[in-house]
Amino acid sequence: MTDIGEASSPSVVPLTEDDPEQAPPKDKGLWRDLVAYWILGLCNNYGYVVMLTAAHDILKELEGEGDDHAKSSMLYDYGTANTTARADDVTYGYEKRPCNKLSTGAILLADILPALAVKSIASFLPLAKHIRIFLCVAAAAAGFLLTAFATVEWVLFVGVIATSFSSGLGEATFLAYATYFNKNVISTWSSGTGGAGIAGSLSYTGLTGLGLTPKATILIMLVVPGLEAAAFWLLLRHKDTNKPAVLEDAKEKPEEIDYNTLPEDERPLDNWNQRIRYIPSLFIYMIPLILVYLLEYYINQGLFELVYFPGIWLSQSEQYRWYQVIYQIGVFISRSSVNLIQFRHVWIMAVFQFLNVVYFTFEAVYYFTPSIWIIFVLILWEGLLGGGGYVNTFYRIQTDVPAARREYAMMVTSISDSVGIALAGVAAIPSHNAICDLPVPDRLL
């Protein structure tokens, strides 16, 4: 296992309820926790990913095919030119850029703001895990149903909001609860969330590609909240969160630990005042992760739908869906790699992500990239950076933060990705509108 960057501090993780002197490899039931956390990560993020992958289709439903927005008389599928109107194989005759009236950043905001709100509150509430997860499962199912059966736009957005609420509450709860388990559940959780990206985007893209309607596709996905419930209540071995966490190599049982003997910066946070004053010490984890997510989701929801190659085997909607699939493949690979390689300096990933923003912005404006395959490779790279930033941040917290404060640190830091995504949604909308008002690039003429 390789650690990129400075040497890490000694690993400290809360004990399970097993014998404290028992080495983790002897825990024959450990596989249940690891598999359960992988499934929970998959299910928790699945609906969120589906909503973003379906964003282009949702906006088409909201705006209706009868509008003349951003379409010339030659456009049908938001940018697929009518072949009968072409002068030849390289002339497309677009009069305007093929754009939605509303950026998919609007769907992004509806898909992230509720998650941000619930994460902000969750860190100050008791870890009532069973109640929280019941709410997550119910909200996820409601989100799919509302989105599938919506006939007016406000119902569609309520469905997206319900899905966001489920994802946000689930992430804050599962990450905090993970501090009571073997440290490797962070790796399997992160891998599962990455798997959700592939499963969500690929399943939606694949099923709609086979001819299913978006409504039928989303209804099929109701199986996912049921799987989440089964993994949490049937597979996962539950821990007593009323007992304080202790160091992995401690000989005393949790109730025998005298926390007054620990250094002040390793003692539990007993009140709201202490918790609030502790938050600035977490900025070293939060700020780089916020930047990574701000930049990558600005690309995903502000620029992806503006990067279009006419006349190939994929329509504009299909290109957008496959951009999301390839991005999620990169996320899955990097989120699954933390046991092989770690990067302590997440800010480096933010720098590379900024370079991606520059490239994709120029591409959205000038359409200079000669092949969609180059875009596919760059999107895979973008996903690798995003997933790496996430998993390495929480792995560092699991190994660096004192055990008595780790649960709270996990919940607070889980806000970071949502803050970055929300800022990206805000930035994506005016950027989308500005680029759509520019002259048509040569590739579409």
From TrEMBL:
Family membership noted in the UniProt record: Belongs to the battenin family.
Membrane-traversing stretches: 35-55, 106-125, 131-149, 156-180, 216-236, 282-300, 320-338, 345-366, 372-395, 407-429
Record flagged with keyword Acyltransferase: no
Taxonomic source organism: Anopheles funestus (African malaria mosquito)
SUPFAM superfamilies from the UniProt entry: MFS general substrate transporter (SSF103473)
Location in the cell: Endomembrane system; Lysosome membrane
UniProt keywords, alphabetically: Lysosome, Membrane, Transmembrane, Transmembrane helix, Transport
GO term, biological process aspect, one: lysosome organization
Name this polypeptide is given: Battenin
Upper lineage: Eukaryota, Metazoa, Ecdysozoa, Arthropoda, Hexapoda
A matching Pfam family: CLN3
Family annotation (InterPro entries): Battenin_disease_Cln3, Battenin_disease_Cln3_subgr, MFS_trans_sf
Residue span of region Disordered: 1-26
Topological category with respect to the lipid bilayer: Multi-pass membrane protein
